[in-house]
Amino acid sequence: MSSKYLFLLSGFHQEIPFAELRAVLEVLDPNHKILEKNGRVVIIETEKDCAREAVLRTAYTKLSTLLISRSPTIEEEIINSLDIQSFREILPPKSKIAVRGISLGSTDVDVPRVEKNLGEVILRNVPAISVDLKNPEYTILFIAQENTTYIGVLVEIKPKKFFYDRVAGRRPFKLPSAMQPDTARCLVNLSRTKPGGRILDPFSGTGGIIIEAILLGYETYGVELKKWIARGSLKNLYHYTPGRGNIVIGDSRQPPFRKGFDGIVTDPPYGRSTTIPDKSLEELMKKFFENSRDLLRNGGRISMAAPTWSNIEDYALDSGYRILEKYTLKIHKSLVRKIMVFT
Predict the structure, then answer these.
(1) Domain boundary at 113, 130, 157, which?
(2) What are the two backbone dihedrals, phi and then psi, of residue 216, each rounded to the nearest 5 degrees?
């Protein structure tokens, strides 16, 4: 049964975390309804399993809660807004609970004090429950923003160091131009490929996109021009996803495949350390887009990154694609990427 769930987005970018969450929910629950977006907080009507799965699949969604109540961000109002009847229905006898709070931006909320006061009210009014701060069965979470505070029951939270072991610099095989795993996972999600679908990375490099796609449950294929890079990427695949994923040594302008992919997710070569056929990223991408229709199934999308100085989208449009989404993402002072989705 659908209910209202709160999702807390990462604050690293104003647009991309919400775009990624929206894309994931379009796949997991086509009937979901976005009810509200307030800064980093998004309220969505969906199924509980989807609220949990969305946190684990996305790169930039931190947690989800079952929304219980809301109030102005005034401590007394937060306490008074508690919907005790809802907690009586949710918390079974002998439940162990913890109350946690998050303050976003500039608020006057004393988080430890509100945690304590909310816990006391719940303990007085919900029978036969107790507090266990180390191993709670239920976590009551309030999120305070400048104008509104939301109270709910935690559904899922992204594990700490979720990407730590897969950071580009910690992989067995490394290249300076390699995409980080959070960006790679986001690109995969923006393709809106259904679980179990087939994804191609025609410029697979060190395999970062392939790894994230495999971990998300996709059948994946990569194409890499250089043998030594292809061998290195296989080391990464064996390390993170042993026995899964396929790397083909070949030219992305003429990949050894035909129709059969639900999504193309890629980060074309453009760094100083890369070798580009024909010495031109634009020429390479022009030929890629011309041939990509032979790779995608009907309805398939291309999700990709490219430097802002490139005109890659012009070649996509010339090949009959249209732009669904486009965002700008600063990587460091000398690299700003465009994140684009084509159909």
Answers:
(1) 157
(2) -85, 0
